[in-house]
Amino acid sequence: MNAETILKDHLLKIIDLNDEQFSYVFSHFKPMSFKKGQVIIAEGDKVSCEYFVTAGCLKSFYINDDLKMFILQFAMPGWWASDYNALYNDIKATISVDCITDAEVLCISNADREKLCSEIHAVEHFFRWRTNKGYVAAQKRLLLFMNNDAKHRYEELLNTYPQLYNIVSKQLIAAYLGVSRETLSRLYHG
């Protein structure tokens, strides 16, 4: 499936757009290709875009003062990624985004997204729906961390996103779960 079709299917699950409207919306997206390991957003960058993944896998992460990596998100096809605090508040990035695999994305600037939202009510509805869904997912993940041990978090990730284990290294999964590589190895073999 090509990027245009993937985005169209993604949008049409939530909103109705005719072909002319979709073509107009799609004209605001810029296709981009990245190689495995390539950085899309680095800490300190100015962030003006968000990225819709059409192929490959990205990770959004933060590295603290002790140089420990915390993974906030793995973004697979049909998912969005950016440093949203930097994007919406016009501040420098604190979250980095890079490519776990070669990746294809559709990039839309904050300005173009806002323009589309003001021009087409359905697009505004889509982005509001997506923001709400993202907020709920973040809240669920936070509660999972607060209320469950590493084994339960690991099992939940495995049940929810089994395809991750074919794409993402165990070291990155450990960083996502907030455990050491050794702890993950015990969970994986236990």
Automatic annotation (TrEMBL):
Keyword Transferase: yes
One Pfam family it belongs to: cNMP_binding
A GO molecular function held by the record: kinase activity
Domain Cyclic nucleotide-binding residues, every copy: 13-116
Keywords per UniProt: Kinase, Transferase
UniProt-recorded name of the protein: cAMP-binding domain of CRP or a regulatory subunit of cAMP-dependent protein kinases
InterPro entries referenced in this protein's UniProt entry, alphabetically: cNMP-bd_dom, cNMP-bd_dom_sf, RmlC-like_jellyroll
Organism: Chitinophaga rupis
Source domain of life: Bacteria
